[in-house]
Amino acid sequence: MDYKIGGLEPSQLIVIAARPSVGKTGFALNMMLNIARNGYKTSFFSLETTGTSVLKRMLSTITGIELTKIKEIRNLTPDDLTKLTNAMDQIMKLGIDISDKSNITPQDVRAQAMRHSDRQQVIFIDYLQLMDTDAKVDRRVAVEKISRDLKIIANETGAIIVLLSQLNRGVESRQDKRPMLSDMKESGGIEADASLAMLLYRDDYYNRDEDDSITGKSIVECNIAKNKDGETGIIEFEYYKKTQRFFT
User: Fold this and answer.
1) Catalytic amino acids?
2) Tens digits of per-residue pLDDT, 216-248?
């Protein structure tokens, strides 16, 4: 994927869009861990779930311990606990900031972007449609304003902003349910704002017979539908939902 997208560039607005529960949060967290390991300052605004939940997902990804086992705690072995301790140390050393404030605005993102001006920063937001805006306008207009504001913030601060987005239900009515840019919920303007747009699709999301219940493995198609600085096209990932891991 790094080769196809051409690497990260300052001031990019990157969009990751999918239907609910397809795996966009897990995909974003895998991406964030890889970016942080390469020396970038990273932060994650989680509007949908708690910071603790985000941390547990990251621990599952790093250690390979099933997420449900981490949540239950009591079934963890001494070896599991050692792995989790080491993973927590790794996250602390990477300096990843996690915020679960539920009413963040573009100005909160600007403040974060300006806080670490000495390092290239990558800011993840999960997800666009839950963000607040001061504008008292129609929700579609408000979401488009948020998208535009985030693009301006990326341009002015040099931060890379990775914005997760929901897809609307229109995709469900088509025979081929693979998403298109026009399916992004409440935000036609984001097509213009985004430097890079990735649309995620899982066949077993719609066809349960395709689900591998033993390994929890799914095939996720990542459609790079827009890319100003590199190639477009589809990349397939193996997604292990039980451990939140993605592999090409």
Assistant:
1) 48
2) 799 999 999 999 988 999 999 999 999 999 998
Domain annotation covers residue 245: no
DSSP state of 38: T
In angstroms, the CA 108 to CA 91 distance is: 23
Do 130 and 166 meet the contact criterion of CB atoms below 8 Å apart?
Answer: no
Instruction: Please state, as a whole number, how many other Cβ atoms lie within 10 Å of the Cβ of residue 235.
Output: 16
pTM score > 0.90 for this model? Answer: yes
39 CB-near residues (< 8 Å, 6+ apart) = 119
| Stretch (H or E) spanning 220 | strand 217-227
Q: Per the structure, how many domains does the chain have?
A: 1
Query: pLDDT tens digits for 148-175?
Result: 999 999 999 999 999 999 888 777 778 8
CATH number at 30 reads 3.40.50.300
